Amino acid sequence: MGAKQKKRLSFMHFIRRLVFAALLGPFLVTAAQAVTLDWSAVTWTAGSLSTAQLTTELVAPNPMTPAITNDFQGGLATAQPSLCLAVNFANQGQAVTVTIDFSALYTLGVQNISLTLFDIDFSAASGNNYQDQLRNISATSIDGVTSVAPTITTSANNTLSGSGLTQVVNGTVSTVDTGAGSGNGNVTISFGATAIKSFTFTYGSGSGTVADPTYQHVGFSNITFTPVPEINPVWSALGSCLLAAVLILRHSAKFRK
Asked: With helix as H, strand as E and coil as C, how does 179-244 read?
């Protein structure tokens, strides 16, 4: 076989491998798209959780929280359904811990999680003295052991301190629940591309309040996330056959020299 024929055969093998790679790519991985937990599309039984610190929402019809309400606007064009959590702590040491677990059906976990909390603020008015505080904010990796630090974005009426797993958000200025300026109490928590199975945070009252904080509440926006793509076993098996076919073609070409 001449040099030109060898080069032509080698080039044909290269093209064949590229074609098979291009064909296999879409089939070996099950595509994943962003998912949104939309509070307007789900149901939640008001008051389904029980703890002495939880209380009713001040806005009529005054459901026992947690409850889905339209009490927060978060700077959006209109008030949107969100999960409202209202508390009345007896002292600054009390708090509630919120944990969001993702379905075990997401066997490789989820990523690109984003949650905005509405109305993280502060009030020092007579009879209305509290400081919303978020702390102990982390996610659990898909291995069930490793803690993942969040990325936190604050707004005009709250501040962020600490780093990594020790980040703390404190409200600094009173914020209206709806209308102009309602977005100034927003805090967004995200976890980037790391695959996780759950995330958690503590909601309490900071030290900038009286010994017995008064009523305070927070709203949870829709939660967005992306399931980690999984290998599709059916197409993976077919892919193995196709790759074997490529190898056979390559070896056959060698034997024909």
From this structure: CCCHHHHCEEEECCCCCEEEEEEEEEECCCCCCCCCCEEEEECCEEEEECCEECHHHHHHHHHHHH
Reply yes or no on whether the pLDDT at 237 is more than 90: no
Domain match, 136 and 247 both: no
Structure token pair of residue 35: 């998912």
The CA distance from 220 to 84, in Å, is: 6
**pLDDT tens for residues 8-44?**
444 334 333 333 333 334 433 455 789 999 999 998 8
Q: 51 and 22: one domain?
A: no
**Backbone conformation region of residue 75, classed left if phi is above 0, alpha if psi is from -120 to 50, else beta:** left
Report the C-alpha gap between 222 and 201 in whole angstroms. Answer: 16
Q: In which domain, by residue range, is 239 found?
A: 3-30+233-255
User: Where does the pLDDT of residue 2 fall: very low under 50, low under 70, confident under 90, or very high at 90 and above?
Assistant: low
Q: Are 152 and 136 in contact (CB under 8 A)?
A: no
**Distance in angstroms (rounded) separating the CA atoms of residues 178 and 80:** 10
Burial grade of 72 (CB within 10 A; 0-12, 13-18, 19 or more): buried
152 and 119, same structural domain?
Answer: yes
Report the candidate in 218, 201, 206 with the shortest Cα–Cα distance to residue 133. Answer: 206
